[in-house]
């Protein structure tokens, strides 16, 4: 069974799709935050990891299962993000962008370092919820139910975020405030509040991705550290100008990575970065982005 | 995007005299270290990182672009130098030269790619390129993966200086550092350096004055990469091993920390920052991951409260440039 090539190929494609779901959720969060705050959130990987740990804590300390975690972890970590934004990021708004990058990098080091001290670098197990255990045989491949669930949930959440920003009244305020904050606040809209909520939303998306990843990747302090560098490359390739663009690029690059794992595994770690170089040489603004 | 350039308020009149005085004091201190109880190996290591930080600062401080992938230059030069000295049997000066040249070439190639984007994107691109190199070195045969290249021979510099003697090695490292430092100082004070500063302050105006801005940035990037390579190559000769630590993204972060702590865009800041960060790692070696947490806290504190860095604050206090 396992030796058959199509099995392995579809297996890698599915893994790619899963990774693509995380890339999409994380790069979407980065794009939303960038649009409103004009910063790159280097702590995004650490917050993704906190989402997974939050799910683990909810289960072991409060006996709240996966379904609770799916709702509560994004809210809790999102609130944590709001505190960070309110106490730190808000105070350096308007300074050269490099300071926000360095600040969030420092925060990532602190968060990861603290978790490493208490939990080491090995992973903590987090069981797949009973309702999603097992799998379905599709004839050409075996599809684990949980993995299908992850892809579906992240697609739905991505599209919901797109809908929120591009199609609702709140989203139109948000987009207007991105273009011209002074004018929008002159219309009586509380722009600082919107900035804070946006950061919370982006962080919540990262935490949600963390909860989804917990049963697959185990809960590890460094689970987001290398991941976020790939997501940065995804963001460079896709450009941060369009919400839909970052979703599509995220999924597409996950799939490409999966295909590379099958056809040329040696390059699977580097293919996203090589694509980044290629895109920069051909279309420096990124596939969907406007000039920075 | 209207952002204030962070360093412009910390630029008082240039006083070459002060800078020279400090240089002479620094040189004398370095020469007399072996007479004190300070461990020379620590100073040599710190000097390599100080050179690395100065090279990094040459680019960030004077072009305003944050590279988050400078570890690739430190590490590449280290691997090439180590391999040349150990496997090819190069003499130390040729091995160091080979390593430095490798970083220069890598600097040119990565610069051509990265200079195409600015601001935040530049940081992400350089980080991605460095990660690409990291995975390359992780898989390449000659680097020996997780083990690294060990037991690199130190050999005879120019055929008569035996680098396996600690005192000889120490003074050679001090000489390399001081010469490279003077070179960086010269670059900053050259017409080329002035153009760089004008691009940092107002890129549009520099363009309208007819400067080919991208070429200046690329040139500065290649210079910075080359000198980072020199630091990496010398470091490998000192430590006698080349490992993945030097190409990891955390090393790229560490050099940013050194420069930020010491003072961005100041001449002596990177040196002070490098010595402090290396000393901290040395004394807190037993504290495990808390070192990383402390580094993170320093980042946050520096960004929130003293963005000029230590040397920058001192210089500001005395209204001097240092």
Name the descriptors.
heterodimer; A: mainly alpha; ABC transporter involved in vitamin B12 uptake, BtuC; 11 helices; B: 322 residues; two-stranded antiparallel ribbon; disordered N terminus
Distinct helical segment count of chain B: 13
CATH class of chain B: Mainly Alpha
Parts with pLDDT < 50 across at least 5 consecutive residues of chain B: 1-10
Fraction of residues in H or I helices of chain A: over 70%
Biggest interface reads: A-B, 48 and 49 residues
Q: In CATH terms, what is the fold-level topology of chain A?
A: ABC transporter involved in vitamin B12 uptake, BtuC
The figure for the number of domains of chain A is 1
- CATH class category name of chain A: Mainly Alpha
How would you characterize the overall build of this protein?
Chain A is mostly helical and 292 residues long. Chain A has helices at residues 5-37, 44-62, 66-87, 97-119, 145-167, 169-179, 181-186, 191-217, 225-238, 243-263, 271-282; strands spanning 135-137, 142-144. In chain A, strands 1-2 form a two-stranded antiparallel ribbon. In chain A, helix 1 (5-37) runs antiparallel to helix 10 (243-263) and helix 2 runs parallel beside helix 4. The mean pLDDT of chain A is 87. By secondary structure, chain B is mainly α. Chain B has a single domain, classed as ABC transporter involved in vitamin B12 uptake, BtuC (Orthogonal Bundle). In chain B, the strands form two sheets. Chain B has a two-stranded antiparallel ribbon with strand order 1-4. In chain B, strands 2-3 form a two-stranded antiparallel ribbon. The two termini of chain B are 30 Å apart. The chains are: A mainly alpha (292), B mainly alpha (322).
